[in-house]
Write a structure and sequence with these properties.
heterodimer; A: about 80 residues; mainly alpha; Non-ribosomal Peptide Synthetase Peptidyl Carrier Protein, Chain A; about 55% helix; about 0% strand; globular; B: about 230 residues; alpha/beta; Rossmann fold; seven-stranded parallel sheet; 7 helices; 7 strands; binds NADP nicotinamide-adenine-dinucleotide phosphate
Amino acid sequence: MSEVLDKVVEIVCNQLTVNKDDVTPDSSFVEDLGADSLDTVELVMAFEEEFGLEIPDDEAENITTIKSAVDWIQNNS
Amino acid sequence: MANKKVIVTGGNRGIGKGIVLSLLECGYEVLATCRDASNFDFSHENLSVANLDISDDASVEAFRISVEEFEPNILINNAGITKDNLFLRMSEDDWNEVINTNLNGVFKITKLVVKGMLKRRWGRIINISSISGSMGNPGQTNYSASKAGVDAFTRSLAKELGSRNITVNSIAPGFIETDMTEGVLDQEIIDKIPLKRAGKVEDVASLVNFLSSEESNYITGQTLVVDGGLFMK
Ligand SMILES: NC(=O)c1ccc[n+]([C@@H]2O[C@H](COP(=O)([O-])OP(=O)(O)OC[C@H]3O[C@@H](n4cnc5c(N)ncnc54)[C@H](OP(=O)(O)O)[C@@H]3O)[C@@H](O)[C@H]2O)c1
């Protein structure tokens, strides 16, 4: 669990240039971390690359928080 | 060399060939395509060629691997066709073929390159449209619709990608001497062009060079017209 979480947090912090301390599992990319719509697409691309997964577009839409990303990755790898 | 890898669709003849030759001269590395790559009658150490039919999904899918290996920073969507006929005589097949090649083809090839550009935070997308898309031309309802579509696509994509330092522009040529305009260009047309001549492929290629370079950093979402003054808004 924590390994995936750590990676996801790291990717999000890199992409959105936010501080690790400002990120919680419930953080929403757009509402809490200042992502724009293109950032959310790029985040999904980065998750796909890091974890070697393909996230279908209709499911990617629901990946809006740290927790939802971690859950999806764990359920699908 | 940084930011110097270019894909040119339809690079074997006409405007595309002019673009490829001038980019090579400026030191770019070029991956050029056409439907049958054995039709390239020129070569260069920085030129590679590939088969690609932009209207065929299987061919586009096969081209994906070449794109991923090449990692282009710049895409020139040049390939295009005409199937002219008066509207009343235009078949649905001729309509669909032109839209599928000129408009859908641009969508599909652009899809292949944008991810890489996003990651590298730099990119140039240059679409060859036509003045026919903004001024209209009898016999070209299909073609002008496709080219107007390309110009509109250009503006929306420029807005989407601007924050990532990717610019998207289109070039709208007037009458340029190529296979496409053979038998079409006559004195009546030349008389209407303020510069009193048809364009050469080099006239378009020089603008492609400029838009590909760092010199054009602050230009995006535009349709730039190269037509000897034929169409003035
Ligand atoms: N010439 C003009 O006056 C003029 C004016 C305005 C705009 N334009 C635009 O400029 C672009 C180039 O025109 P051109 O005059 O150079 O035309 P051209 O001499 O007829 O050459 C067309 C090029 O597009 C390629 N092509 C056509 N259909 C394709 C397909 N389905 N898949 C892949 N490649 C394909 C051709 O490759 P193949 O050898 O495989 O057929 C060829 O390389 C076009 O988009 C055209 O609409 C031209």
